[in-house]
Amino acid sequence: MIDELEGANRNYVLAFWHGQMLLAWFSHRNKHFTALISKSKDGDLLFKMLKNWNYRVVRGSSSKGGDVALGVMVDYARNGESVVLTPDGPRGPSHKMKAGAVITAKRSSIPIIFMAVGYRKKRVLKSWDNFEIPKFFSEAKVVYSEPFYINSGLSFESTSALILEYEKLLNQMSIEANNFGNE
Question: What is the model's pTM?
Fold first, then answer.
């Protein structure tokens, strides 16, 4: 699914939970993505890391500069760039989807793909997002959804319902990604 889009040089929106971002960002480095990150001090650290991994970075969030940043992300998406967002960032609540990723896909008429990451052995930080750090030599499991196309004429109410549906899907994917040995 994701390989087919990339192989066909098709762009898409990629969304994953904030607490699972470590492997998600790393595994998509050097693929010409545009990333949305916050204007916070934590965002400053992530900005440096993502620039080293060849991401184009747009700064903004739901709390600071969000409308402008979302417009920039839509413009990049409309012009052939794949974009990455953490739909529960930058301050949560954890695993509760905000509208940014879905609206970007809707307005730019490109598919959205969800990604979940799980580790067999990990450390979970006591942060708002329960940030996950794999222990050395731990196995990781990555789960991708199929691409979802969102009708650009969808009403506000239908879009809001879809956001809740996708939130449930991404949470289920996270459970699957963390379910080692029970496949």
Answer: 0.91
